[in-house]
Structure prediction request, 785 residues.
Amino acid sequence: MRLRFDRQLNWLHVELIKLGSLCEKAIALSARVLEARSDEVIDEILGVAAQIKAKEKELESYCMMLLLKQQPVAKDFREISAALKMVSDLERIGDQAADIADLSRHIRGETVHGLLHINDMAEATVKMVTASVDAFVKGNLQLAEKVMEDDDIVDSLFNQIKDELICMIQEKRIEAESALDLLMAAKYLERIGDHAVNLAEWVEYSVTGKRKNNEVPQNLW
Amino acid sequence: MTKKIFRSMLLLSMIVLVAAIGGVMGVLYHYFSENMSDTLRSEAMYLAVAVDDEGTGYLERLPAQTERITLIDGDGTVIYDNMADPSNMENHADRVEVKEAMERGYGESSRYSGTLSERTMYYAIRLSSGQVLRVANTHYTVFTLFGGLISPIVLILAGMLILSAVISSRVSRRIVEPMNVLDLDHLDQVPVYDELVPFVTKISRQKKTIKRQLADAKKQQEEFSVITENMQEGFLVIDSETEVLSFNKSALKLLHADYFAPKQSVLTLNRSEAFCQAVEAALGGEHTEAVLELGQKRCQLIANPVWEKKTVKGAILILIDVTEKMDREHLRREFTANVSHELKTPLTSISGYAEIIQNGFVRPEDVGKFAGKIFEESQRLITLVNDIIRISQLDEGLMPYEHEEIDLYEEAKETLVHLEPAARHRGISLSLNGEHFYISSVRTILHEVLFNLCDNAVKYNKENGSVRVTVGRQDGHVTLTVEDTGIGIPQEDQERVFERFYRVDKSHSREIGGTGLGLSIVKHGAASMGATIDMKSTLGEGTAITLRFPLAVETAQPDGPEQH
Prediction:
């Protein structure tokens, strides 16, 4: 019985790795699409996002099935509940990558890119997602910590881009529509960074049983 | 074991006990009955004689007796009884023993009482008066006797139980003990009883077989791991759940994993799409190949399914570092493209000039000039082809390979003499410094290398510049440095100038007339002589290229600097 359960947990782990890999691909592609627009790549991203969505549903019901049928406790329970949460964070990452791809269709004026730090931000976000998936795959707490720290870089880059855009709008160097789209794209990237941090926190939870800044109240009942 | 022995022992003693009791009781009972009937008979006879002589009064004078004595008249009426009132007793004429006595003179019989616990024996004898005298005695039956024996039997049984428990546990311990203390590692030296010997021999034989098989298996395992560990290629075996069963160091190195915990999915090592797909395809039963981008390197992944009874039990993954191979392939493609281009350019010119002449568009006095151009281009073509041939020879190691002692200084001097006219034409001064050092080398290759180096120094120099060649010694090496005051090589191109057909300034190459193979020849030539190349260059100021030869013989002859 335990052997079967172990195999099910193993399968879940492997599938999560695959889902993580898909998300990495989606966000890496959308970073590329921000740099140089390409309809082919946009279609590819949308395909990957659909794949991610399907996998999310599959893994979610699998986790539920495990919780119901195996009634796990202790570490097993942590692993499955963390997986359940990670699945939705990963799905959000995939979805927002697709949103960025969608937005990039409307952003005009390649010259704007060089002046903005949006590519730096995309690069930093891709790194964060990769690192958080890495942390999960290897169960590496240091990597998870690093992801949480790196979020500050992405956040400050977002503020910088916002200021830059304000400047450009005031100086009328950019179309208002493009400026808004760029701001949205930057916001999505910032959100993806937050999801990466969530992932890292769930990794920490599934390994140590503790959640940062989120202690469960002892006198709950 | 103890229980079994105990049970059989108890059973045995019970059987013995029952048999003994039965036998003894049967024999004794029979003996006692015989004895009693004898006593009864003789007693009856004595009494009969006495009664015959003295009449009934004798009986009444007898003291109280255990036996019952009855006197019965000829018609069966009881006349006397010593234990009951005769008037109350019924007629005894139909009693077996009385009847017999009436007929034959004596009779006997025995009857059980109502409870079967007692048995009464009768003996009757006919008196001369026709009366019958009957003597009776009562004794206990077998059952009563047995009933009396029950408590001692129970005692004996209890004793037997205890005794057989003790004995059986002892016996079984003694049987089992040699097996328990059996030292399985030294079976030959164990003292065992005879019945155990075949058992022990068989175990020891099997043990040896197992030991040998284990050793064989271990050896095979070691051989296998030595092979896989020393493989350049990465090697991974996974099961159908993608769990890693076996891996070697190269695999971890190629996949950039410094540590791998066992029993993990192979996807924890690499989760790129190509890798996932290859693993999935292999586990689906297909042979797959893919090229993985791993940081700076490229790896070829070969994934093969492992079949067992028509189901895929796992897969074998092999990783081969193909970075160099792909780079070489890239270079080769580039070389082919370059060669065709370099060959085509002069040929196009030649064909163009020839066509113009053929069509008669050239004035007769200009034909010479055109012929000159054609000659020039053909010369260029010949130089190029020669260079290509030379570089292929160096590449393939086909150049004559006779090593001889060569004075590097003299060789350099000779080269500079050759280049003197070209240098003078552009006002470039050539100088040679240093001492005479001998190196062991192949003259043609050395000449080729020196010529190309110095030729480059002159070609890529400024007007009125200078070229300085120095032969010296440094750290056990003979060095030859060619310095120029030329145009220099930009930092980003310094790595690539030794590549075939690589040019820093592509637009001016034709004016200068190089083939783009000079430094490539230098590189290959130096490599075949075992020399190393060191290049320092500053854009706009000049280039210094140093060749370091391994020192052959200590025959330095001090000689002053010579000017050319």
Remarks:
- The longest strand of chain B covers residues 297-308.
- Chain B has five domains: 2-147, 183-228, 231-321, 326-391, 399-563.
- Residues 2-147 of chain B form a domain with the Beta-Lactamase fold (CATH 3.30.450.20).
- The interface with chain A takes residues 241-243, 265, 267-268, 271-273, 276 of chain B (CB under 8 Å).
